[in-house]
């Protein structure tokens, strides 16, 4: 049986180490890694340090990192984004985070997200609630779109970006005249952590890279929110998108997504 309490302790220490590196590297280089995509040497330094730490502390568990790929077990593995929100970080915008989730089969069971420049760490274990530090989180209870602040994930880049972004534009049209505000934060880790924390009422991320989403998905669920795919079905690591929402707005957000997808 997996000792989730012990693994949460490992995850906390891992993101704390990552946070220390991010805060200490005050100068860094930025390189292109694709169409309008980038990596800094901070991303690489953090991922390498966290990989080394996790390999030592949890040798039987695999790891998928955004920058270095998947190594080891593919049934039980850590999903790591060393700097989620690299574009923000590279510009000195403090909205970025370290995201680490333990994926067991299709779902995550342990999560830790550190926001290095906002001085908060979010954690969760399946069945035990979600926390910001020692404070238990509760997702939004909103039931009206007119009361809702909704974040939307970044626009697509790379292959088929134009077609994918037509859906995003349609979604903005669906929500823009109905919700209280739309926000683009530039970090899936923050989007999901803030849905769990009730700061956002929903977040629509039209992609599902596990390093971006799997930690935050568990936070939302453990805070009483819902996370679904574009069709409204239960979100898993194989989902196409990550739609996180307080339970009272699920149907309206899913319906708006369906209309946008056409």
TrEMBL record:
Coiled-coil spans are none
- Single GO term (MF): inositol monophosphate phosphatase activity
Source domain of life is Bacteria
Q: What InterPro entries does the record point to?
A: Inositol_monoP_metal-BS (IPR020583), Inositol_monophosphatase-like (IPR000760)
Annotated keywords: Hydrolase, Magnesium, Metal-binding
On whether DNA-binding is a keyword of this UniProt record, the answer is no
Q: What Enzyme Commission number does this protein have? A: 3.1.3.25
Could you tell me which Pfam families the record lists for this protein?
Inositol_P
Q: Does the keyword DNA-binding apply?
A: no
Cite the PANTHER family for this sequence.
INOSITOL MONOPHOSPHATASE, INOSITOL-1-MONOPHOSPHATASE-RELATED
The protein here is known as Myo-inositol-1(Or 4)-monophosphatase
What are the top taxonomic ranks of the organism? Answer: Bacteria, Bacillati, Actinomycetota, Actinomycetes, Pseudonocardiales
């Amino acid at each position: 049986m997996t000792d989730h309490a012990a693994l949460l302790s490992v995850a906390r220490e891992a993101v704390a180490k990552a946070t220390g590196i991010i805060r200490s590297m005050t100068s860094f280089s930025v390189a292109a890694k694709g169409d309008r995509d980038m990596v800094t040497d901070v991303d690489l330094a953090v991922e390498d340090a966290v990989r080394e730490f996790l390999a030592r502390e949890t040798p039987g568990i695999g790891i998928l990192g955004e920058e270095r790929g998947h190594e080891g077990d593919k049934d039980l593995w850590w999903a790591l984004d060393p700097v989620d929100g690299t574009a923000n970080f590279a510009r000195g915008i403090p909205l970025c985070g370290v995201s680490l989730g333990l994926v067991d089969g299709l779902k995550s069971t342990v999560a830790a997200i550190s926001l290095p420049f906002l001085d908060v760490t979010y954690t969760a274990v399946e069945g035990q609630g979600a926390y910001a530090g020692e404070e238990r989180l509760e997702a939004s209870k909103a039931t009206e779109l007119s009361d809702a602040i909704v974040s939307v994930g970044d626009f697509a880049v790379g292959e088929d970006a134009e077609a994918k972004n037509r859906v995003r534009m349609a979604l903005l049209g669906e929500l823009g005249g109905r919700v209280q505000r739309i926000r683009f934060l530039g970090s899936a880790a923050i989007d999901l952590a803030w849905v769990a924390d009730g700061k956002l009422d929903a977040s629509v991320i039209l992609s599902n890279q596990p390093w971006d989403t799997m930690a935050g998905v568990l936070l939302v669920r453990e805070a009483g929110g819902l996370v679904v795919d574009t069709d409204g079905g239960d979100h898993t690591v194989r989902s196409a998108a990550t739609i996180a929402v307080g339970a009272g707005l699920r149907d309206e957000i899913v319906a708006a997504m369906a209309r946008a997808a056409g």
